[in-house]
């Protein structure tokens, strides 16, 4: 079993009107994958850095250039198309692997870019959010800390931020200071993304009232599961609890994506329930009941 710590950099559209909306609303197109591979004893085994030539957002956004230093000429010379880069990445990950990322923003971006290129994302590996583990286990807090801050607290000297490989290495440095053997069981969750949904809603309220969005097929037993009501989880995202007839438990996450006023679409990710996701869900549920 390998643990693959990865980080992505992505380009953004120049303006809202240039944003790709089909087959899905594309908030970013991946231009770099940086990854480090740990073995099952969490020893550093290998590194990988891939540049990707964007197909949709072909002109680099100035803000992204300022942040990452990645320029058009660079991608033209070194980038490969996403499907090729993704194949190389998967080959490198090995037969049996789990993903580790800092925060949960890279997983949905990876899923969106896979779906954009028609790559099946219905079954991603077990994912661990190292930011969450650091916050809970080291800081005893629900706060989401930056990677820089975590390195500072741990008195580790990190590589310069906003390079995908540097950020993956820096996350590995934090991992090295965590008792992963002790923590991982509580935090691991398999992730399932679905094909883009085409239905357009006039409002977020109309979207949330669509009963179909609370239904999914259990990836383990194939039963149709109807979730409980959605709870607000901030930033246009909602979560709902689902229990299948075979007692498999899930957390369904839904994002109400606003394409333009009066035009909303739903994106959904299904997470296998973990002890940590259960805690997150119960916190939201209790907060909703208090209101
Ligand atoms: Zn099931």
What's the arrangement of secondary structure elements?
Layout: E1 2-11, E2 29-38, E3 44-51, H1 62-68, H2 72-78, H3 82-93, E4 97-101, H4 106-116, E5 126-129, H5 130-138, H6 147-153, H7 164-176, H8 180-187, E6 189-193, H9 204-209, E7 215-217, E8 224-226, E9 231-234, E10 237-243, E11 249-260, E12 263-272, H10 275-290
Parallel strand pairs: 1-4, 4-5
Antiparallel strand pairs: 1-2, 2-3, 5-6, 6-12, 7-8, 9-10, 10-11, 11-12
Helix pairs in contact: 6-7
Report on this structure:
This protein is an alpha+beta fold and 291 residues long. The protein has two domains: 2-189, Ribonuclease H-like superfamily/Ribonuclease H (Nucleotidyltransferase, domain 5), CATH 3.30.420; 198-290, Nuclear Transport Factor 2, Chain: A (Roll), CATH 3.10.450. Helix content is 33%, strand content 28%. It has ten helices and twelve strands. The chain has a ten-stranded mixed beta sheet, with helices on both faces. Strands 7-8 form a two-stranded antiparallel sheet. Helix 6 packs parallel to helix 7. The longest helix has 16 residues, at 275-290. The radius of gyration is 19 Å and the shape is globular. The relative contact order is 0.13. It binds zinc ion. Zinc ion (ZN) binds next to loops.
The secondary-structure class comes to alpha+beta
The ordered string of helix (H) and strand (E) elements is: EEEHHHEHEHHHHEHEEEEEEH
CATH architecture level-2 label of the largest domain: 2-Layer Sandwich
CATH class annotation of the largest domain: Alpha Beta
Strand content: 25-35%
Q: Give the terminus-to-terminus CA distance.
A: 44 Å
Strand order in the largest sheet: 3-2-1-4-5-6-12-11-10-9
Task: Indicate the radius of gyration in whole angstroms.
Answer: 19 Å
CATH domain fold name of the largest domain? Nucleotidyltransferase, domain 5
**Biggest sheet, in brief?**
10 strands, mixed
What's the pLDDT, averaged over the residues? 96
Tally of structural domains: 2
Q: Which word captures the global form?
A: globular
Helix content bin: 25-40%
- Looking at this structure, what is the CATH superfamily of the largest domain? Ribonuclease H-like superfamily/Ribonuclease H
- Ranges where pLDDT stays below 50 over 5 or more residues in a row are none
Number of separate strands: 12
**Total count of helical runs of at least 4 residues:** 10
Identify every distinct bound molecule in the structure, by name, code or SMILES.
Answer: zinc ion
């Amino acid at each position: 079993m390998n643990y693959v710590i990865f980080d992505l950099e992505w380009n953004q559209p120049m303006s809202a009107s240039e944003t790709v909306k089909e087959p899905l609303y594309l908030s970013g197109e991946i231009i770099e994958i940086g990854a480090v591979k740990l073995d099952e004893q969490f020893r550093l085994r290998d590194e990988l850095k891939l540049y990707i030539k964007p197909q949709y957002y072909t002109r680099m956004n100035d803000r992204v250039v300022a942040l990452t230093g990645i320029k058009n000429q660079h991608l033209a010379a070194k980038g490969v198309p996403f499907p090729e880069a993704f194949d190389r990445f998967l080959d490198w990950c090995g037969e049996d692997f789990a993903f580790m990322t800092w925060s949960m923003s890279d997983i949905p971006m990876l899923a969106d870019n896979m779906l954009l290129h028609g790559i099946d994302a219905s079954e991603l590996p077990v994912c661990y959010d190292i930011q969450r583990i650091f916050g809970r286990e080291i800081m005893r807090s629900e706060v989401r800390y930056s990677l820089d801050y975590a390195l500072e607290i741990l008195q580790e000297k990190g590589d310069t931020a906003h390079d995908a490989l540097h950020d993956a290495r820096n996350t590995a440095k934090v991992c090295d200071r965590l008792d992963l053997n002790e923590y991982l069981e509580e935090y691991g969750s398999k992730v399932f993304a679905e094909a883009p949904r085409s239905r357009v809603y006039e409002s977020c309220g109309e979207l949330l009232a669509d009963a179909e969005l609370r239904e999914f097929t259990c990836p383990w037993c194939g039963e149709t599961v109807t979730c409980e009501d959605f709870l607000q989880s901030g930033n246009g995202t909602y979560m709902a609890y689902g229990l299948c007839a075979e007692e498999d438990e899930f957390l369904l996450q839904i994002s109400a994506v606003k394409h333009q006023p009066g035009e909303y679409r739903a994106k959904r990710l299904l997470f296998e329930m973990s002890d940590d996701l259960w805690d997150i869900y119960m916190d939201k549920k209790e907060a909703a009941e208090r209101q």
